[in-house]
Amino acid sequence: MKKYSLALLPAFVAAAMTHVHAAEAFDTKGQYMLGDWDGKRTELAQQGVKFEANIAADAAYLADGGRNPGHSATVASQLWLGTQLDMEKLAGWDGVTVRAVMTARQGQSTSVRDLQGDVPQLANAQANFGRGNQDSRLTELSIEKNFKEQGISVKAGRLGVGMDFNVMACDFASNAFCAAQMGKWQGSMWMNTPVSQWGGRVKYQATPELAAQVGVYEFNPDNGNAKAEGQGWSLDTDHADGVTIPVELVWTPKSLVNGLPGSYRFGAMYNTADNVKNQKDIISGEAEDRTFGGWVAIEQQLTSTGEGKRGLHSFANFTWHDRVTTKVDNSQQLGLKYIGLTDRLPNDMVGLGVNRVHVNDRLSAEKFDASAEYNVELNYSHNPTKWLMIRPSLQYVINPGSTNRVDDAFLIGLSSKVIF
Description:
By secondary structure, the chain is mainly β. The chain has one domain (6-419): Carbohydrate-selective porin OprB (Porin). Helices cover 8% and strands 44% of the residues. It has a 16-stranded antiparallel β-barrel with strand order 1-2-3-4-5-6-7-8-9-10-11-12-13-14-15-16.
């Protein structure tokens, strides 16, 4: 399959706008940049067909430190195109939803090109850089059935593990604060979006505030490679090697701290790969037939102005990983977000996050002569419209790659997102 180029996006937008009522496109009060298609978009949604289209980009400039400060900035971007079909409305299938998503990532990484030394930075300053940069991908193709009276939901298809487990918001530029952290520090076994793999998830909603879920996902290293043209669209299982099994308890109290809502996730993961190419002791190199990990993810609103989500929010994420098979054996993340700075800017947000990633001390102290890497980010998300977000950011990385052989780094960033 030919590689998708985000450079063609203006042509896509121009073509789409030929079908959009001129008065609705770029409406600052509208939900989408391309408008409501003269009412057709709302009509289709009411009939059970919803569309998703956005492009996100992260620019990062290494102002000081690292390996190559002052070099030109890099940009990493992602195109997202998807649809959701409510089959209950479309075909009378009670509680059934079908989703399909493709993504295409392109660009470079300042962390890779300029910041890191002789070992890779553990995090990445640009969350939109990573798996899939070489090609487009099938990111999701799923069917979900809700048994409403029983409180059970079953989902199956091509899925990312972090879509349902260890879920976190992505309101920062660095991937140290973006999405499921298990996929960052044990990423050889846990593959987040944009990667998809064959899998399924069963969720039981015991009460309105308490749920439990378990998943089984194929482990196949080919899913994360995207080295060959079209690899991101491969559906075969030729090199499958065991499965990844996450379990999670999710508590979402509606009224906890100061009578405000929160989300508390407690989970564990077990993987059964046994090919030495995929699973081995990080010291001896001997084959292993399992690995495991665990997490606690917290999001809690602390104050409120009395209007929706406006107020101070906190978040935290803690992970633990198998010390036999994993380079990173634990991580911690803490942060604050304030949403709605003024009445005129009800959706704008200031965010501050601090992350620590600890390298397994079974590894060479000579190679990793600092015990941990620290990532700090301060940002401001400006939402002039519902369909446009602009986020300047400042990042500071201490001990990049968990070494002292490269200087601590200061980065200036600018992220953006447009919803079509």
